[in-house]
Specification:
The structure is a single chain. By secondary structure, the chain is mainly alpha-helical. It folds into two domains: about 60 residues, no CATH class; about 170 residues, MetI-like fold (Orthogonal Bundle), CATH 1.10.3720. About 75% of the residues lie in helices and about 0% in strands. The protein contains twelve helices and no strands. Helix 1 crosses helix 12, helix 4 runs antiparallel to helix 9 and helix 8 runs antiparallel to helix 9. It is globular and about 70 Å long.
Amino acid sequence: MTRKSMLARRLLTAYGILFFVLVYLPIALILAYSFNANPVNMMVWSGFTLDWYCSIFGLETELSQQILYVESTDALLSAVRNSLAIALTTTAVSTVLGTATALAIARYRFRLEKFYQTLMFMPMIMPDIVLGIALLIFFISIGIDLGILTIMIGHCTFLTSYVFIVVSARLAGMDRSLDEASADLGANEWTTFRRVVLPLIMPGVVGGALLAFIISMDDLVITYFIAGVDSTTLPVYIYGILRRGIKPEINAIAVLMLSFSIAVAALGLYIRSRRR
């Protein structure tokens, strides 16, 4: 091995280590500080405790009796329920719309096809704050009260694009001769879709649905503009607490959200491996 290749290998190794440190060190710090018993300054370690996790679920502990940053457990649980309801609904709708659009563009040729395909990318390219303001003006202009419904509609506008891209990538690698073979054997279009096409693109559909679900659960900027008074989601609720400073209970909530996202991703990988 030459000196230049050894130097390049060391630089690449150092870059990889630095990349993972910058990405995962903040997450590791959040995890560690969520168990810190110091109720005032979380940067000063005062011992290990699970009280912050207990206080999230409304369990009284020694620390929660002294100081409590999550004023209402009911409000927190209500935000969690809103986030789950919105995420499940928008995932179902955006998965159907995104998959149908990807199939239509992949199977049929029509005028302005490239232009329509470009429009599907726009919600992803557009800054979240611009899309949030546009949706807010739209809902106010047509007289729709801000609430759960407006959040669902707003999430579907950009989550459909994510599902469309994932499913389109799956369709691009699919052998079209399988459709022709199914038709030659006497199957109609619906049978071909149900027995041939859908099983082949199912990994892309599942991947797009899981991606849409996680993005909907974590969305803050767009939801902040189009949420009503009684439709607070978990990210908006956390943002409201953060405006008063980073507190130990926020770290505990962040760890629980991270664990939930990892569980969803692991479930998707497991389903994909089983289908293979």
